[in-house]
Design goal:
By secondary structure, the chain is α/β, with parallel strands linked by helices. The chain has one domain: Alpha-Beta Barrel (TIM Barrel). Helix content is 42%, strand content 14%. Helix 1 links the parallel strand 1 and strand 2. Helix 1 packs parallel to helix 2 and helix 4 crosses helix 5. The two termini are 16 Å apart.
Length: 299
């Protein structure tokens, strides 16, 4: 298991709403702070007024690929654009679908191997519909899976959130496995988001054992049990990190250990970002040292 981080770790400064760090600067800073294996989070660059909204987005990606090659950065996974389909017009849906398509193409251009995608939730009138959500996602992933396959990519479907105020399809391990089994193609796997699972009160270790044969990616983050805080491990209310690391070793997880912890850094002044990100690298190495059989000299 290798330590990795999502590029969203460099996102905003002092909680500003606009993306503050460019993708190019983000890659350079991640390398400077110890990371050479990255999850390119295209979702923070997609949408109206952002790089994937421009006609020259492929030139932008080509420039990032050239920089990454020069710096020796590897992208085992990326994160596609995602959206909520409820209440969208046909025009809005088409726009979002094009953003998804562009981010999948970009993943291929950056030579990623695995692209993380969110399942979509469909309502039956005014409430969640399991039947319609399953049917919609089957069509959605088969369609985008055809493009991903042509680019040499696999797709990791991410677990979602269910709590007192929100219900999303694939919040449960059972639904996630059902969807992957229905797609019935080895190119579809699972990305496990620990923060989402914490909000859904899932037994994380048992879930990891259940999805082990299909587990291809991780989003490692913590929260305080109320919102999707995307904090670094130990900075939320999760108390099972030692058990989680042991379980990842037991199931022989072969993917990367990828932080998705942008809200741990978003509130900081720009001058403090690099020091905070260096700390997360040290924290990640410590967590990996908890996996039985792993030998890291620092711990």
């Amino acid at each position: 298991m290798r330590l990795s981080t999502s590029t969203c770790i460099y996102d905003r400064v002092l909680w500003q709403q606009k993306v503050h760090f460019s993708a190019r600067e983000t890659i350079e800073r991640c390398v400077r702070t110890g990371y050479s294996i990255l999850d390119m989070d295209y979702s923070i660059y997609s949408g109206e007024g952002l790089p994937f909204d421009r006609d020259d987005w492929q030139l932008w990606i080509a420039d990032l690929h050239e920089l990454s090659t020069k710096l020796g950065v590897e992208y085992p996974q990326s994160h596609a654009h995602f959206y909520n389909p409820v209440g969208l017009s046909a025009e809005q849906t088409a726009y979002n679908e094009e953003q998804v398509r562009r981010t999948i193409v970009a993943s291929g251009m950056m030579q990623a191997r695995n692209v993380v995608m969110h399942p979509l939730t469909v309502l039956d009138g005014t409430w969640y519909s399991h039947r319609k959500s399953l049917a919609h996602n089957r069509e959605y992933f088969l369609r985008h899976g055809e493009l991903a396959h042509s680019l040499g990519l696999t797709i990791a479907i991410e677990n979602m959130i269910e709590n007192k105020t929100i219900r999303r399809y694939c919040s449960s391990t059972e639904e996630l496995l059902e969807l992957v089994d229905t797609l019935n193609d080895p190119m579809f796997g699972i990305c496990w988001d620990f923060g989402h699972a914490n909000l859904s009160n899932v037994n994380q270790c048992e879930a990891l054992k259940a999805i082990a044969p299909r587990l291809t990616a991780l989003h490692v983050n913590d929260n305080r049990g109320e919102k999707d805080d995307h904090l670094a491990p130990y900075f939320g209310n999760m108390t099972t990190w030692e058990n989680i690391m042991r379980t990842l070793g037991e199931i022989d997880y072969q993917g990367d250990f990828t932080f998705e912890i942008h809200k741990f850094t978003n509130g900081l002044p720009e001058a403090m970002h690099d020091e905070a990100v260096r700390f997360t690298h040290t924290l990640g190495e410590y967590l990996l040292s908890l996996v039985p059989g792993t030998k890291l000299t620092a711990f």
